[in-house]
Specification:
Chain lengths: ~400, ~375, ~350
């Protein structure tokens, strides 16, 4: 009787108050609205494109680019295609991002540890660095380096000579370049063998320590192997290298490797800017390890250096890695600010192509795909690293 | 009962003695903080040397060697460059900033109408300051005024064109006012949008969840410049022919959408930190979804993430400089324009001076905000201390 | 909260959005009351704001002439400074009605980019500028092998330079900037050995250098750069107005009608002048075009004829000191040839 009443009651609930119906209705409405919005946009776009006579599709990527690019990692000339120009841009983005990530990490770790130093002066200096750089827009830092600092360097004729035959002037940083002769493969082979040996030694040493408790100086042996074997190969092959020093030409220094001021300022600015955030992450990570851990390793008789390396850092890394990943992503995304100083990254080259061809949608799609892929790949790599560092829970 | 000989017990307190020399005083502090070990001593010396080398340079450049008066670039040129200053001179060229200060603040906003911008700025401060101080009452009214009423007043004051104010077109806007307008609109739009997206991401409706995730991750995965690029190059393609958006509006849309994705993640963090019991409690009271979120969950979650919100806002404030890439002139844009587009002040020191000035302004704003966020963090942390 | 925000957005959008169906630009322009004209952000002689903040220059005056033809008033025009990159989007999206921004007429832009060029207001060619003080031995662009060259991104200049150096088998380092001002500043700061753009532009840029006399323009002209105003495709009526404004400027110069003597000329008995100025009985030339019959008179009153515009902005009396050269009328050995107005 009562059961029935309840059932009757629930049956009488109007559909409008049924959460499932409401949720379904709401979602259908959303899809319809969104679909309508997309349809409206697509319709407008098609009409606009056909009206201004702009063709669609990615066929334009095979067209001749016609413009030259200063920094190219792959063979590129004005005869190359738009597609190749974009590849040049992607590579430039990746190079500046990778270089920036490495430098920012190093500076960031140093400053972050500096902020925890027992030394008052070092602590304060690190704090000043962090507070200074993280409260200034990155674009401003880039422009400051480019127009404020690097443009004050002397002209080519008054280049500042630096050690090892390198020069610094307002066209950038000139380094001697190395050209490898025949027999280069021997050095490479030496390096490969060295790496393989190091891996083997590390494994054996680890196994031995686990079994007997005896330690083996893996680090020094590794250094010896990695430096020594290629060096040996180099000497055996009869030093197959010619060093090309930068020479004064009519306009610029010719020969050698030239790192352009556009790259330098972008790289320095991104590194210094991101380092201030990494420093804070490192500090938080180290502080996040409970104090008891320090006391525990001291109680076990480990010396501070070893304790830090074996006990504190591995735990701090677990706190550090996730936010570090997002800083790496930020740095990569900030590299698109290159356009403000004329460094030919993906964004700058894409913009030029858009201007030549009018293919706005295709170019934006390429931007989205490339940046999203970089983001996803970086995230995946860091997640893998994070998983490796994670506490093996038993 | 035995008599105790109490003669060995002191009857008066020993006077407190000064702490050992090695524990107090300047010398002890120095030893502890600067010269604790050999490595420490070396680091201190290196740092001291670095400071002794850099600080005079910086101070001289900023103040002692700087030029303070002048009417054009000759004031800041050395003899070999065609001016009066000794060869090898290097210092800030402050008259450049002085003569362009109006532009740095207002862009090309008409001179006679600048009081409107200043009035809007004053109103902004009057509403913002009490909102930030936790002790001041009437928070709700204050927030309504700041987020609900002020935008309209501000729109009327800055754009004009009705109620007796002259219309000022946005291409004339520039400088710090554009920076502030972009950031203000960014936060006013991104906060509610971010909350909606965060709720969407945690929603049980699969389609809503999917769409929110796609939007948030897509926007977070690309640089702001591409979003601005889309807003300025693709938006015109998306709308019917002839319908055009103001450039500033396009930048606003770009910045707001971008910020809302980041805001959504911050708010989601807050939502996740609310114990499940709170949700269940609200359910058991028979509250509907919006009541549950609006009265129980959101107030707690938002309070929890105020520092995160402020940090997102700092990021957005810095990101507004990127509009210079789509040819709009915020503070940095105007400074840059004056550095490279105008030969009146073209000297080797102009760029540095201008950027140092812009950096100082950005730094003051961002540092103030981050300090506020830390203050709130400490204040909020009290209730969660174990 | 949400509603308030939507309200704010709505108000802002409403206040800042202008709607105009581009199929009838003339109707929209008339309803709006002014013409939106896209110009260069700052190229002396062509379009640059002067000390009072007013736009001046050859490209600017052309837009004023169109405004005079449509409204009888050369001031009914609003200018938008555009970079090389956003200029085409601005025209296509209706942000501007005319693009008068020293833009080179090419087949790609005329077809694939959806533009319609109305004429050539300035025949130009690309050249190079160097700092004579730091490079005293360079007299020819052919000596520029190995040089760093500053150039603005997204221009025909960038492409011509690539072709020129390739054809002459020379190496060079392009230093490419988004904005014209950035390229100027970088060249002036010594980042590049040479600067390249249209020759007229070189003379204008030279004036903005710290010491203009140090810089020389090299003699080689490496390309044809016909610069002219353009409009959107698909609106023939508007295209006609812009095109014939240009011809009217040329024909008035040919007929000797100037800003000073236009009122006298109205009384002239010469049938050609009468026809041109719309005082011929029962004339329909102006109304057929979609403007008033006194359109030519209005144009000349507002800006003067082509020769006057040229001399005022870039001619021998200006700091640019550019001679008419190929930009003289066809009757004087130049290329400027106005189609007959009849």
């Amino acid at each position: 009787m009562s059961q029935e009443a309840i059932r009757d009651d629930s049956a009488r609930v109007p559909l409008i108050y049924d959460p499932r119906v409401r949720s379904a209705f709401f979602q259908v409405l959303l899809v319809v609205l969104l679909g309508f919005g997309i349809w409206w946009i697509v319709e407008n776009t098609i009409e606009n494109l056909s009206r201004s006579n702009i063709s669609t599709g990615f066929g334009f990527l095979r067209g001749r680019a016609g413009f030259d690019i200063a920094n190219t990692l792959i063979a590129y000339s004005s005869d190359s295609s738009y597609g190749q120009a974009l590849v040049v841009g992607v590579l430039n983005t990746l190079v500046v991002a990778a270089a920036g990530i490495v430098t920012a990490t190093i500076i960031g770790f140093l400053v972050g540890i500096g902020r925890l130093s027992n030394n008052w002066l070092i602590r304060k200096l690190a704090t000043v660095y962090v507070e200074l750089f993280r409260n200034i827009p990155p674009l401003l830092v880039i422009l400051f380096w480019y127009q404020g600092v690097l443009s004050l360097l002397p002209s080519v004729r008054q280049s500042i000579p630096l050690p090892l035959g390198s020069y610094l002037n307002n066209r950038g940083f000139y380094l001697p370049s190395l050209t490898w002769g025949p027999g280069f493969w021997l050095i490479l082979a030496g390096l490969v063998i060295a790496v393989a040996l190091v891996w083997y030694v590390a494994r054996r040493a680890h196994a031995r320590q686990m079994a007997t408790g005896q330690q083996f100086p893996v680090f020094w042996v590794s250094v010896l192997l990695i430096v020594g074997l290629p060096l040996l190969a180099f000497l055996l092959a009869g030093m197959p290298v010619t060093v090309e020093f930068p020479q004064k030409g009519t306009f610029n220094l010719t020969g050698g490797t030239n790192i352009k001021p556009e790259f330098l300022s972008l790289y320095l600015a991104l590194s210094f800017y991101t380092a201030s955030f990494i420093a804070e992450i490192v500090r938080a990570g180290v502080l996040g390890v409970p104090r008891g851990q320090t006391e525990a390793y001291s109680a076990l008789g480990l010396r501070p250096g070893k304790g830090l390396r074996l006990v504190i850092v591995p735990q701090a890394m677990r706190i550090i890695i996730p936010p570090l990943t997002s800083q790496y992503l930020n740095l990569t995304k900030n590299s698109s600010l290159a356009v403000a100083i004329g460094f030919p990254d993906l964004y700058a080259i894409g913009g030029t192509i858009l201007n030549q061809t009018g293919q706005a949608i295709e170019v934006v799609v390429i931007f989205m795909v490339v940046y999203l892929s970089i983001s996803i790949i970086t995230s995946l790599l860091m997640n893998w690293f994070n998983a490796k560092m994670a506490l093996p829970e038993r | 009962m035995q008599e105790h000989d109490m003669s060995w017990v002191r009857t008066e307190m020993v006077l407190a003695q000064a702490a050992p020399r090695s524990q107090v005083g300047v010398a002890a502090w120095l030893q502890k903080n600067l010269f604790a070990s050999a490595v420490d001593t070396a680091m201190t010396l290196v740092a001291l040397l670095a400071i002794a080398w850099a600080l005079p340079h910086i101070l001289n450049w900023l103040f002692f060697d700087a030029v303070w008066t002048g009417t054009d670039r000759t004031a800041c040129l050395t003899t070999e460059q065609g001016g009066q200053l000794p060869a090898g001179w290097s210092g800030a060229c402050w008259p450049f900033v002085g003569s362009r200060f109006g532009q740095f603040m207002f862009g090309r906003y008409p001179y006679d109408e600048r009081w409107r911008v200043m009035l809007a700025g004053a109103l902004f401060l009057v509403l913002l300051v009490p909102l930030l101080i936790p002790r001041v009452p009437y928070k709700r009214l204050n927030a309504i005024l700041f987020f609900g009423v002020f935008p309209f007043v501000c729109f009327w004051l800055l754009v004009g064109g009705f109620l007796g104010l002259r219309y000022v077109e946005t291409p004339l806007w520039g400088g710090l006012m554009v920076t502030l307008v972009l950031s203000y609109v960014g936060i006013v739009v991104s906060l509610p949008l971010g909350i909606l997206l965060a709720l969407g991401r945690r929603s049980h409706m699969p389609i809503v969840k999917l769409l929110s995730v796609i939007f948030i991750e897509a926007v977070r995965g690309v640089p702001l410049v591409t979003v601005l690029f889309m807003a300025s190059f693709m938006l015109p393609l998306f709308v019917p022919p002839g319908m055009t958006f103001d450039k500033l509006l396009r930048a606003l849309i770009g910045v707001a959408l971008f910020a809302s994705a980041y805001m959504a993640e911050v708010v989601r963090g807050g939502l996740q930190a609310i114990p499940k019991g709170q949700y269940e409690g609200a359910d058991s009271l028979g509250l509907g979804y919006w009541q549950k979120m609006g009265f129980i969950v959101m107030p707690q979650a938002l309070t929890l993430v105020i520092p995160g919100i402020v940090n997102t806002f700092i990021g957005m404030f810095k990101d507004t400089t990127l509009v210079l890439i789509i040819s709009m002139f915020d503070l940095l844009g105007v400074v840059k324009q004056n550095i490279s587009g105008d030969p009146t002040w073209a000297t080797p020191q102009t760029a540095k001076t201008g950027y140092v000035f812009a950096a100082a302004i950005f730094w003051i704003f961002c540092f103030g905000m981050s300090r506020y966020s830390q203050f709130m963090e400490r204040r909020l942390a009290t209730s969660h201390k174990r | 909260m949400k509603h308030i925000v939507i309200g704010v957005l709505g108000a802002a959008a409403f206040g800042m959005m202008a709607t105009a169906a581009s199929a009838d630009t003339l109707g929209d322009v008339k309803a709006r009351g002014f013409i939106k004209c896209g110009v260069n952000t700052g190229l002396a002689g062509f379009s640059a704001p002067n000390a009072q903040g007013e736009w001046t220059g050859l490209d600017v005056d052309f837009c004023r002439a169109v405004a005079a033809a449509v409204f009888g008033d050369g001031t009914k025009v609003k200018f938008t400074g555009l970079s090389a990159k956003d200029r085409f989007t601005a025209l296509q999206s209706g942000e501007v009605d005319i693009l008068s921004r020293n833009t080179t007429w090419t087949i790609n832009r005329d077809t694939a980019q959806g533009l319609n060029f109305a004429g050539v207001t300035y025949y130009d060619g690309q050249g190079f500028m160097i700092n004579k003080k730091s490079l005293p031995d360079v007299n020819s662009a052919l000596q520029l092998s190995g040089a760093s060259i500053c150039v603005q991104a997204g221009t025909t200049t960038e492409l011509n330079m690539a072709d020129y150096f390739r054809a002459n088998k020379m190496e060079y380092n392009p230093v490419v900037f988004e904005k014209f001002e950035e390229a100027n500043a970088a060249y002036d700061a010594g980042r590049c050995d040479a600067y390249t753009t249209d020759q007229s532009g070189l003379y204008a840029v030279r004036l903005q250098m710290k010491s203009p006399d140090d810089h020389v323009v090299l003699p080689e002209i490496i390309s044809k750069e016909p610069l002219g105003p353009s409009v959107r495709q698909g609106d023939d009526k508007w295209f006609d107005i812009v095109k014939w404004t240009y011809y009217a400027l040329l024909n008035t110069e040919e007929a000797g009608i100037t800003k000073a003597n236009v009122d006298e000329m109205l009384k002239s008995d010469n049938p050609e002048i009468k026809r041109l100025l719309g005082v011929e009985a029962e004339t329909k030339i102006g109304t057929d075009l979609g403007v008033g019959n006194d359109w030519v008179v209005n144009i000349v009153r507002a800006t003067g004829n082509y020769g006057e515009i040229f001399e005022r902005n870039v001619g021998a009396e200006t700091p640019l000191k550019i001679s008419r050269g190929v930009n003289a009328l066809w009757t004087k050995g130049g290329l400027q040839y106005g189609m007959p107005i009849r």
